Amino acid sequence: MSSSSSNDDDGGDDTSEVHRSTTFRRRKRAEKLKLRLLKAMTGVASNQQDVMEASVSSTIREEDSSNPSGKTCLTNVTPDTELAIDMEERDTEQRSSQSEDNNSSPGEDDSLQKKRNRDDSSEDLGSEKSTDGCSTQFFRLEHLANAGGGNLGDDDPDDDDDDDDPDDDDDDPDDDDDDPDDNDDDVDNDSENDEGNGYWAELEVANPEEGDNNAVDNGDSDPEDDDPGDTDSESEDDNNGNGGDGNLYFNPQRMNIICHLYANRSVKEVLALVLALFDRHSWTYESLIDCFLVLNLFLGGNFFPKCKQSLWNALNRNSLGMKRHAYCPRCRRSLGRYKDLPNRIQCPGARCGRVFMKRNIPYFMELSLKSQLAHFLARPDASELLFSKANRAKHNDAALEDIYDGEEYRHLEDGNEPILGEYDFTYTFNNDGFRCTTSSSVQANPIYIRLNELPLNVRQKHLFLAGIWMDKGDPEMVLFLQKCLVRQGNRLSREGITWNAPGKGVITSKFLPTCCTVDAKARCIMMNMMGPTGYYGCTFCPIEGVQANGVKFPLEEEEEGEMPQPRTDAELRALMEAAHDNPLGDHQGVKGISPLMYLQHFNLGTGMSTDDLHPFFEGVVLFHMDKLLTDNMAPYYIGAPANVAIINARLMSMKPPTLLARTPRTIDSRAKWRGHEWRNWILYYAYPCLTGLLPQRYLRHLLKLSRAIFLVSRDSVTENDLREAEEKFTEYVREFQNFFQVECMRYNVHVLLHVVRAVRCWGPAFVHSTFNFESWNRKLKKHIKSMKDPILQIVNRHLITSFISSVPFDPVNFSPDVQLQVSSILLKSDLKTAETVGDVHLLGQAEHGMVSEEERLALENFNIRNIQGLTRYKRALYGRLEIRSTEYTRSGKNNNTHILSWNGTFYRVKSIAKVRRVNYPDTCLLFVHQVELNGHANIVSHFGHVALVQNHHLEVCSFESVRVFAIHAECAGLSLIVPMPNSCEID
């Protein structure tokens, strides 16, 4: 039986049954440890060592005579000494536990072993015991901390205690104090009557089967191992094996140097650097305040906040316009502003009428979009970013390459009186929930908006939080949207924001809604319509559905060649009004008025996007593969162990580029796959992995979906691409019904028929994907440290993150080196740039050399002559593409050597070079070999068959001509290459 189980048993302190060898070893260890520690802590001279040794030995002998149990009593030892003895003895006993077990007598029974384990555990825990009048006391770490004013027994990881500062009277530090200077119209400054809001904590207590808040692993923890490159990390025994004092100490020659401040830094610059560390490493507030206190001590003044309240004052949180709206936890009826509630509140609902204490009333948070947008517009580079749309370079003027090219966006700009003015902007909004912890039923639902006019590489980095709801189940969407989105959105579209745009003067910009991108469930809730599993559950067309083991949406025979007629804005508004007047009538799935009906300039018919994450990858692709791998009586079954082993072997041999965040996992672990893994499967891996295993007709069917998704996800979508994609989607849905029957015609399969329409309206699929917003949900989830006021934790940390992210772009308030340091902290990149030439960042060690004859001919063919020198590199960063040459040997599971150019040619990068010429600036180029193709695969045409015999003629390719990475796969006797559809998507 293990010691952990024996700890649960009740037992006395009698140690008479402990083996004599164990008792002897413990006494000898205690004697040696006390002697060494007393020497180290009292600084005894060498000529007094014999006297002390005799004294300690005498003391131990006296203890032995008065203590038959064998336990050693420590006398005349300071608490610090006892703490050190406790810690070192525990470490020593752990190292020798194995040898003690081996020395136990063979006849030792289970009861004796239990009692011995209990005694070992009791000593390890340092508990207080009394045996025959002898008291052994170990001072535990928290005892010493409490004696010094610390509080290591804090149950709230986010520091919701009242120990930050003796002058801080805020019992809930995340709430503001009653400050007469606060503006109650903008910020809630209500007190909690010495109690925090316990609603969400009680929800967790009410579900004992749910786990604790899952600890967030940032992936950056520093293991306690030695640095392999540090020659001093491991040494021989001290003093030629005689042992040292066994303690760490400061090197006096290095540590006694007096520190001087040579850099003139403002308080806000130091504050920004510390807050960047706080955000990057997910510090607790206690750690942050302690860091500020150390800085105050070091600088000799109170320059930095000493408590959280002073931190919020320093960051001017009161100007952010946060409002808390309370609602009844039973009927979810609005109860007004949280700060205005009395201590006891009765729900005004006629069917409810329950009475609640204020601390048990839930609320949702509204954040001022105007304040957040005004803060962003104050950035020096805001004007350049927002007006960059006019300067963008399109690769194909007739293609869809961004949201500006969609029909609905152009409609806002066209006409004699365009809705969208010269200085106006648009936004996409999203609402998608996430569970607060892995095993919790409490769900957080944020509302994001994202400015469409920002460049693609910047757009994802700047999302604005309009509000957040946290409770079990789905939010009360009418109340939530009306308070947080509709009211604020209408104010932004009517009044706008006045700001100073460099080069344009003081202007007023209005913000208009364009597209809502959410999953099917949230789309139906926001539209106040039947869910996707009910009749008329499609928000895009009035298909009724049939009952076939649940409501399904098959294609009727007479409709198989036609697309369903879409709903229009006018039709939906009429149905909503009719449903409001007559709730019992048949209104084609519309249950009543949606709050979005009152959002000005929002089109209910075309404003909802189909998304790609949920219907494509987590919907249809996942369901399709489950059918192939689990229907063991079907002709398409490939789930036999032998087939799965082949698929796994092929899948694990794939080497995708690093732009795909996750390398492949085995197909039998697909239950844990994320959405981007299913995307990679259908676009890149399915064809080579299933070739020769899945019958040809079923493989062709699956790859029609692959081809259609590839076409609508490209960085430049032409009209021919749209027509082919619509044809492939329709064929896939029709064959899906034929192969798997009506019972499998779920809503996600039906919605594929509406994808091309959404792409025509709003541009390529990745532009209005929920992938971007899902990544921000993960960031918000990391902000939750406990279930005490989790909304405030999210909001406070999100605002700090937003503030810190603007520092690298603010040269007015921050010096260049501070901007660079904050940027390096936040980027979390391990790429070491050797040199930057234009938009190309050369990475790694430079290799200077002569130009070979082959390289000279390639450069001349590229019209580059008069070469002075050439420097080679193995890696280079261009935009989001980290291009690697074939000379880079540390690629491991990734391959970044294959690229597709804008002229449609595949290349393999041999080397990366910086060329120096006479009277010309330095130029970065790629030496490449063209990948010869035998033609494109008939079964899925975005795959190319690589020729067995390659032309090794060296060519030159510019970085500007690189379009995307390509993935090369060799399996099933095939050599295939497939390009990524774009380089803008994120995982």
TrEMBL record:
It comes from the Eukaryota. Residues 111-131 have a biased composition (Basic and acidic residues). It comes from Frankliniella fusca. Residues 1-29, 41-247 are annotated as: Disordered. Residues 44-59, 66-79, 95-106 have a biased composition (Polar residues). Transmembrane segments: none annotated. This is Halomucin. Residues 153-195, 219-239 have a biased composition (Acidic residues).
